[in-house]
Design goal:
The longest helix has 36 residues. The chain has a domain of 57 residues. It is mainly α and 86 residues long.
């Protein structure tokens, strides 16, 4: 039995997969930028690097921002479910 006998092949699936891959790549870049921005700003602030200029970030606020960063990345990734591939 041939694989094509059981299921119909659709050439438009290639177009859908390309569209999906572009959106996934876009979300990956967005999540990378968000995480990079967080790591560049919030982690040094929580470590006291900006204390010279009078900016202090309490550890519990830093932990809250870290959790919020994770939630934002997950919500951004879950937004891929709303893609219309047609």
């Amino acid at each position: 039995m041939d694989c094509c006998d059981t299921k119909q092949s659709n050439h438009l699936d290639v177009v859908r997969f390309l569209k999906l891959s572009r959106r996934v790549y876009s979300k990956m870049i967005q999540n990378l930028i968000w995480a990079l921005g967080y790591n560049i700003l919030a982690i040094p602030a929580a470590a006291g690097v900006f204390a010279v200029w009078g900016f202090f970030l309490r550890p519990e606020i830093g932990a809250l921002l870290m959790s919020l960063s994770t939630v934002i990345v997950v919500i951004n990734a879950l937004s891929l479910r709303k893609i219309n591939l047609e």
